[in-house]
Task: structure prediction
Amino acid sequence: MDLEKNPDACVRFDRHAVYLGTPGGRQDCPARLRGRTEALLVQPAGSAGSAVTENRTARTYRATADRIAVTAAYGDDRGSIQRILRSAGLPVATAQPERAAAAPVPADATSFRGEGFDACTAPSQSAMNAWRDASEYGAIGIYIGGLNRACAQPNLTAAWVRTQYANGWRFFPLYVGRQPSSDGGSCGGGCASITDPVPQGTAAADDAAKQAAALGLGKGSVIYNDLEHYAPGGTVTARVLAYIDAYTERLHQLGYRSGAYGSVSSLITDLVANVQKITPPDVIHFARWNYEPTTTDSAIPATLWPKHQRIHQYAGDTTETHGGVRISIDRNRLDVD
Result:
């Protein structure tokens, strides 16, 4: 797809596609894309040298060549992406791990009480400015990584995070790692699922902390593991609980706080029933689309996560316009210190 001719096109990695050009500042992305397959984004860049980095956990290559930059996502077919990059003369065999830590924003970056929204791709600066001036929102959910993160993130940089923080925005970072099943929630059959929960949960935490640090979200920040809806019970519940337990334990070792996003009828039900058997997440981000902007819910006892440890996603797959800027979002009420 030619992005110059289609400036509002959503650059997404949950479908086979090649995108040419620079993603537009106002990509029209559905709020709830999940999954990962083989896709390429090729855009102009100032660098004339060749270099390749790879994030094996998130299944993404980033490469620079003669005045171009390539983001190459892959699902199960890493070999095809490697062949494509090699055919362009890129040194895939010597790919380095990606991302170094950036100077952190202040520790309250993931603390907020009030209205927030999440969007599949981080909006442009002009969009953020328009929404800051014209909407009631004060926090934004940003998808910082994970192998099932479907949307490209051309705007999401450490500089972008610093600017939004300075402008008064706060964040709830979401990490879309392995899912309870390949077809749960908004996966549509395209999500990599949990198969070996303890090492996979640990690896997710390692990568989530690395991606957060690269954006300037330092230790003490909450990082929410996004687990889409599933039918609870039996093996799947056991896998999910072991995965989130390992994720939480490892984040704590790394100095971060653990959050978990999921449906009241699946993840939250399982967490409530097993809260004494695992290391529970520090904050819950629960989805119940009842259009009630409150952080209380009949399924969650008042004694659990009681001290400003909740986010309620109370509406989803909606579109709003503020300051003349239209974005597809989910709505959230935050009570997080």
